[in-house]
UniProtKB/TrEMBL annotation:
Lineage: Bacteria, Pseudomonadati, Pseudomonadota, Alphaproteobacteria, Rhodobacterales
Name used for this protein in its record: Ribosome hibernation promoting factor
Gene giving rise to this polypeptide: hpf
One Pfam family it belongs to: Ribosom_S30AE_C
Top-level taxon of the source organism: Bacteria
Single Gene Ontology MF annotation: ribosomal small subunit binding
GO cellular component: cytosolic small ribosomal subunit
Major localisation: cytoplasm
NCBIfam families found in the cross-reference section: yfiA
Quaternary assembly: Interacts with 100S ribosomes. Associates exclusively with 100S ribosomes, which are dimers of 70S ribosomes.
Subcellular localization: Cytoplasm
Annotated source species: Rhodobacter ferrooxidans
Length: 191
């Protein structure tokens, strides 16, 4: 497994890196047999330390957890416990997908754009309706089933996930609704 341990405006020493690798490795080995990468970022706001961890699994799932405490080690432990709880909660679902999926998830490339916010007052009509692109990035779109997409949405704690449906190859969206339920948009079924 590849670890990327860094700090925002703080020094992450060798002892902390060793501790993170040992503790996170134990959690990952316990619940997810094929991890690929863990990205751990430590930061500080005022007197509190924060730990933000993103764990990528070969099944295409991404688990995300954040912890904070007065001590940097305690912040990591809080984050590790949340990650442990997430993986334990989804262990059965992860295992069933692990058995069904023989190959790692494939990712297709896509373009992601950041558009400039309108500087015009709302009551003034803009000169042109073309938005101004201020940044263009590469986006990764996983090719997974709807069940895996919902699991990914819940594990990552995101509000929206765009994916390529393995069933028919079309682009789909799952999203968290304001009422707490999960919505699924499948343009193929809109005929």
């Amino acid at each position: 497994m590849r670890y990327q341990i860094s700090g925002k405006q703080i020094d992450v020493g060798e002892a902390l890196q060793t501790h993170v690798k040992a503790e996170l490795g134990e959690v990952v080995e316990k619940y997810a047999q094929r991890p690929t990468e863990a990205v751990i970022v430590f930061s500080r706001k005022g007197y509190e330390s924060y730990c933000d961890t993103v764990l990528h699994l070969s099944t295409g799932l991404t688990a995300h957890a954040t912890g904070h405490a007065a001590d940097i080690y305690a912040a990591f432990e809080s984050c590790r416990e949340k990650l442990d709880k997430q993986l334990r909660r989804y262990k059965r679902r992860l295992r069933s997908h692990y058995i069904d999926r023989t190959a790692p998830v494939e990712f297709a490339g896509g373009s992601a754009y950041i558009l400039a916010a309108s500087e015009e007052p709302e009551d003034v009509e803009p000169d042109t309706l073309q938005p101004v692109v201020i940044a263009e990035m590469e986006a990764r779109v996983p090719s997974i089933t709807v069940g895996e997409a919902v699991m990914q949405l819940e594990l990552a704690g995101e509000r929206l996930l765009v994916f390529r449906n393995e069933g028919h190859g079309g682009v789909n969206v799952v999203y968290r609704r304001d009422d707490g339920n999960i919505g699924w948009i499948d343009p193929r079924n809109s005929k």
